[in-house]
Amino acid sequence: MSVAIKALETTQAAAEAIVQRAETRYEAHRQEILGSTDRIFAWLMIGQWIFAIAVALIFSPYGWQGKVKTVHMHVWVALFLGAAIISLPVALAWRRPGELLTRHAIAAGQMLCSALLVHLSGGRIETHFHVFGSLAFLAFYRDWPVLVTATVVVAAEHLVRGILWPESVYGIPNPEWWRFLEHAFWVVFCISILIPSCRRGLKDMRVMADRGAELEALSENQWRNSSVVDRAAADARGDR
Amino acid sequence: MTADTNVEVRKGYDRVVVPESAGGTRSLTRQQFETLPLRERVSYLIEGSAQFFRDGRPISASEAMRI
Q1: pTM to 2 decimals?
Q2: Domain extents for chain A?
Q3: Using CB atoms, which residue from A15, A218, A220 is nearest to B39?
């Protein structure tokens, strides 16, 4: 085998190894972001559940059946429906952090938490702000399909609840049929900015990984061009 | 003695010349070079076959890779 061919093969092998390490670094960085965001949402959802129970207890703790004072249905809704909404996303966040299913379950669960809070507040328009805050938090994942899942869930939930129980979502008994589209429009407006931001975040991570690979390649070149004595000294120091 | 704080510190490169597989060379802008596959860029850097330029003047690869 000629020296030139051997040198080419060595270069290709070194390049392959450097590219693989860059890919590993990129994936590790991405998994770290996905896993840590899952954990943030697990705690956030538990916090929201406690908050929903508190809202029910503070604003409508009791109802009356004739002269009998009973615990208001809202308290049970907050307790049991809230637990049902958060149980799967929180379990997945703890048991399967970083997985695709986990973040989509969290996106859907977070939108249902918004729906619960809107219902408990009697359809107050101010409580709808929870949806937009949640979308911003979901953008932490830097994974734009998660935002699409959230949008579909919140639009569907508004449509169904708007037909079956409009006071629960809009606070009025006879809203226009297309009111859910108006709400969905503002959600789409919000994610139309968040999606490019997520893509930009991923691109920046890729650039960082590539920069690391280029610097590693430069180091490899300098090592190859160094003298035998220098190489031995570099190896002894663990520079390479 | 005062330090000249108005000196514009420019880093990196704006043009790079890389060898063609069929012989000869091709000149790329920084943007064009950065859109090449990573494996190809890394190979040029390992071989030391890419020549970097800033403002038309050749600079070393290590100078070019400074952020």
Answers
A1: 0.82
A2: 9-209
A3: A15
